[in-house]
């Protein structure tokens, strides 16, 4: 258990928790919500490890007030949630579902009533199925549909959402969703998936303009990053690591800051039209950084379809997901972003950071999760160290408030500060919740509103 007191964070530092719509809301067929690619994927046999779906998940759609009360009890100053595109536009475009917009309005108002800043992500992977049927993110039109959807949401909530996040982890939606097929929509296009990268970024840029027209709140994107460690020391290993870095850390960031796409990946970029890169490079106010762990890379075997090989990073403790735990990787990553993007880099907020463990209530009904406490303690200290290094980090959101539906892993991975019994829906704060409440209470430096 960590004992040293947590250092203070700068005045106004944002303390938050993150979730996403399909992972917690449930109510998949309720009040006019349309189907998304994740409904389709989860209901396809063999795709989800435990055969489950997000049909009910945490039933947050009905229990949102209880969940906001949990956030208030924790003392967070912000909540990052995502809006389900098919809940507000069941066909992805055209006919609006007023009940869907009403739900997010109730949620936002409940947050504000508790002094919690609403931080809304517009796309956390749940594309409306009718848009997928029209080609999904392979189709350039989807970028325009996304901007219309952003306009619709901002027209209703633009006066109350305190930070907009256009896309969540477009790299994961590209790689797992469209290159390897582990996530919805299950396409296996490998490097031919490049148009999905470009159209997501184009959608981001068009959405930034749409949001600016309706709302004075700052705008961000949430990218996932992983510092790359070379395994072996040959020139080929070093080159493979650089290629992986271009793919994982630069593909969705270089264009945001006016540097265009990395060329060393050899993508066919015919999807990129004149003017697109200017749309994509529209200034943003915050860079959202999702961090879980570093990645170890070496040169591929002869005949491999990929220009790198990922290998397990040894010598670190591991989570229940078998991901290595390395807080120093977060400080290293923040330094890398700061050095590479320099004056073009806006303030950073850590929009996701967290870990899965096999947490269960004990005989007295407590849920002890000392490994999560150690994880969060280490990563918060890494953020504090990065701030001392000169990186402008203005917030930290834990993934996640609740145990929830972890995509292809179904209900088998628990990331919450709050335990959820998926039979009854019962919420039980874990020991990490009590720990974080103390950290926030003793380190936040602005008065409670
Ligand atoms: C995020 O994705 C998502 O935004 C969120 O919805 C999700 O619930 C959460 O994280 C937890 O998964 O191969 O051992 O090096 C995270 C993306 C991709 C991060 C895989 C860690 C590699 C682990 N992740 N990654 S490893």
TrEMBL record:
<keyword id="KW-0326">Glycosidase</keyword>
<keyword id="KW-0136">Cellulose degradation</keyword>
<dbReference type="InterPro" id="IPR033132">
    <property type="entry name" value="GH_1_N_CS"/>
</dbReference>
<dbReference type="Pfam" id="PF00232">
    <property type="entry name" value="Glyco_hydro_1"/>
</dbReference>
<protein>
    <recommendedName>
        <fullName>Beta-glucosidase</fullName>
        <ecNumber>3.2.1.21</ecNumber>
    </recommendedName>
</protein>
<keyword id="KW-0119">Carbohydrate metabolism</keyword>
<dbReference type="InterPro" id="IPR017853">
    <property type="entry name" value="GH"/>
</dbReference>
<dbReference type="InterPro" id="IPR017736">
    <property type="entry name" value="Glyco_hydro_1_beta-glucosidase"/>
</dbReference>
<comment type="similarity">
    <text>Belongs to the glycosyl hydrolase 1 family.</text>
</comment>
<keyword id="KW-0378">Hydrolase</keyword>
<dbReference type="InterPro" id="IPR001360">
    <property type="entry name" value="Glyco_hydro_1"/>
</dbReference>
<keyword id="KW-0624">Polysaccharide degradation</keyword>
């Amino acid at each position: 258990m960590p004992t040293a007191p947590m250092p203070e964070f700068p005045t106004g530092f944002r303390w938050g928790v993150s979730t996403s719509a399909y992972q917690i809301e449930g109510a998949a067929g309720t009040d006019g919500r349309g189907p998304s690619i994740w409904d389709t994927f989860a209901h396809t046999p063999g795709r989800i490890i435990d055969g489950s779906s997000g049909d009910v998940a945490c039933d947050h759609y009905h229990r949102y007030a209880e969940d906001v009360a949990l956030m208030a009890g924790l003392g967070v100053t912000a909540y990052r949630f995502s809006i389900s595109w098919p809940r507000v536009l069941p066909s992805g475009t055209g006919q609006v579902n007023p009940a869907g917009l009403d739900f997010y309005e109730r949620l936002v108002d409940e947050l504000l009533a508790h002094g919690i800043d609403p931080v809304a992500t517009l796309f956390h992977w749940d594309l409306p199925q009718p848009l997928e049927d029209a080609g999904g993110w392979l189709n350039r039109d989807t970028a325009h549909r996304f901007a219309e959807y952003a306009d619709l949401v901002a027209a209703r909530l633009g006066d109350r959402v305190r930070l907009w996040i256009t896309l969540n982890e477009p790299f994961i939606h590209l790689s797992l969703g469209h290159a390897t097929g582990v996530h919805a929509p299950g396409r296996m296009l490998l490097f031919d998936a490049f148009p999905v990268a470009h159209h997501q970024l184009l959608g981001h840029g068009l959405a930034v303009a749409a949001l600016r027209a309706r709302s004075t709140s700052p705008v961000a994107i949430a990218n996932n990053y992983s510092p790359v460690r070379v395994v072996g020391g040959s020139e080929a290993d070093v080159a493979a690591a650089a290629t992986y870095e271009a793919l994982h850390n630069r593909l969705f960031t270089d264009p945001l800051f006016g540097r265009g796409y990395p060329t060393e990946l050899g993508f066919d970029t015919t999807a990129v039209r004149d003017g697109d890169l200017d749309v994509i490079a529209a200034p943003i106010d915050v860079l959202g950084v999702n961090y879980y762990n570093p990645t170890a890379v070496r040169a591929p075997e002869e005949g491999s379809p990929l220009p790198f090989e990922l290998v397990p990073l040894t010598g670190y403790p591991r989570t229940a997901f078998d991901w290595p735990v390395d807080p120093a990787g977060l400080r290293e990553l923040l330094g890398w972003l700061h050095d590479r993007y320099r004056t073009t880099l806006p303030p950073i907020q850590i929009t996701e950071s967290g870990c899965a463990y096999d947490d269960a209530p004990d005989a007295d009904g407590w849920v002890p999760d000392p490994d999560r406490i150690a994880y969060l303690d280490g990563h918060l200290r890494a953020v504090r160290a990065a701030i001392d290094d000169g990186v402008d980090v203005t917030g930290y959101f834990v993934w996640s408030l609740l145990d929830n539906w972890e995509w292809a892993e179904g209900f088998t991975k628990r990331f919450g500060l709050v335990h959820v019994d998926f039979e009854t829906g019962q919420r039980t704060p874990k020991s990490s919740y009590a720990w974080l409440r103390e950290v926030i209470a003793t380190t936040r430096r602005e008065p409670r509103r």
